[in-house]
Structure formats: C-alpha cells, structure tokens
Amino acid sequence: MWNSRTDYLYVAPAILVMLIVIGYPIYYTIELSFFNTPASLSLADKKFNGLDNYVTILTSPIFWKVTWQTVVWTTLSTFFAFVLGLGAALALNREFAGRGFLRGLLLIPWVVSAVAASYVWKWLYHSDFGVIGALMVQFGLTDHPINFIDNTTTSLYALIVVNVWKEFSFAMIMLMAGLQTVPDSLLRAAQVDGASAWQRFWHVTFPHLAGVSTVTVLLLAVQNFNSFIIPWVMTSGGPAGSSDIWITHIYQIAFGRQRWGVGAAYAVILFIVMMVLGYFYVRALTKGDESRAGA
Q1: Neighbour-count burial for 70-90, b at 16+ CB within 10 Å, e otherwise
Q2: CA 209 to CA 93: how far, in whole Å?
Q3: What is the domain range of residue 117?
Q4: What's the CATH code of the domain at 142?
Q5: Mean pLDDT of successive 10-residue segments in the chain (295 residues)?
C-alpha cells in the first residue's frame, strides 16, 4: 500500500504541471465558449449566453463552407501524402546505388521549416515572377501564368500540393519501417508460386503494413486538422475565404475580430473532433497488444 502511494508522489509533480499547462487552458476555453465577449469589451466584461455561440456557429453558412474546405484539405492531403510516401518507401526498400543519398534527399521537405517552405512556395506560385508559371508558359501548357494562390478556385488545391510535398516524407519513413517487418521468406515463396509483383504486394506486403498504415493515416489526419502555418503564411485563408480551414478561421475570429467566445466555441468543436481521432489512434496503437494478450 505504501509503495503505491510512493509511486503517486513520484508522478505528482508531472501531473500538476500537466493540469496547469494543459488542463486549465482546456477548462477556460470550454468556459469561455458559453460567454459573449464583444470586441469593444474586455474579457472581464464577458456575459453568459449559454449555447448561443454554438448555435451561431452551427447555423452559419460560413461554418459549413469552412468545414467542407477543412474536409477537402484533410482528406486530399492525407491521401496523397500517404500514397506518395508508400511509393517512395517501396522504391527505397530495394538495394541500388545511391539509395542512402536519395533517402536523405527525400527527407528534406520534412526537416525544412514550414514557414520557410511556405514563403518559397509562395514565390514559386507567384503569378508574375513564379517559376511554376514561367515553366508552364515555356512548355506551352498555358499562354499566360496562372494565379494559383490568388484564385478562389485553385487556392485551396495549391496549398494542398504544398502540404503533400511537406508531409509525404513522414509517411515514407513510417512505411519504410513497416516494410522491414515483411518476411522475405513469404515474398520468395509467393514468387516461386508464380505470383506477380502486384500480387506479392497486395497479398503479402500490404497486409503486413496494415497496422503502420492505420497509424500513419491517423497521424497525418491529426496533423492536417491542426495545420496552421502553410495556409496562414501563404494565403491567410484568402482570397475571399476560399482557403480557410478551421484552424485559420478560429484564429481570425479570436485574434482578428476579438470574438473570444465564438472562437472558443469553435475551438471546442475542433477539440471534440481531435478527441475522436485520438481515440481511433489509441485503438490502432493498442490493437496489436490486445491481440497478443488474447493469444
């Protein structure tokens, strides 16, 4: 009994720090979401308004527009980052000259600062001086440079390209680690039985990657839901809100318009979504342990 109490004493400082650094901000955000905080007043003058902030958000057409853009941003970014990462991992899993150099080269997007990458891509997309537009004109793909990030139709998809470029290296690393668990004996046996390269991948390699693939997809989804730097630095949600996602919209409401209560309510909704994703992430991590315990 005394030993268990001693254990709690050892972890008490860490728990106290977590309650102060994490617990209190979460509590205060939830509390603030039930108050009206006009921009002309300070937080000390906030007035309780119940669920009005949530009703305002859920009945706003802007909320559903931003929600749809967030779903598009998260889904496409996660899907293409995973697919490119899987392709790169499969290519680099083979022995060939210069493999180590190529691995290091493909890691550059992941280690580069998101702010620096955003500014570089912003200039690459520039309608007058951008390299991408100039190359498209030179190769005859278009007769004039395209406004990628200044166009309401293309801005979100242009940001998705940048985000995929930034994130696919992470998926590549995770999946390369998963490929090390695929038994060579099974691959050789399938090859002897006459299985094609695609059949070996689909029936042997991919099932062994199921666990790490699930974890990778969930981590990418969580990262994309919270991705703030690239959308904010490159477009700040513009033009005309066409590249706004939840996290940038929350920032604009809270710190731009100083509507702290509405911003807090938005943050609570985002927190609930993140908790759901976190639940599936923990389930994916503990699935192997549960199966081993059952065996």
Answers
A1: beebbebbbebbbebbbebbb
A2: 13
A3: 48-288
A4: 1.10.3720.10
A5: 69 84 86 80 74 89 92 95 92 83 88 91 85 83 81 91 94 89 81 80 82 89 90 89 90 86 89 85 70 49
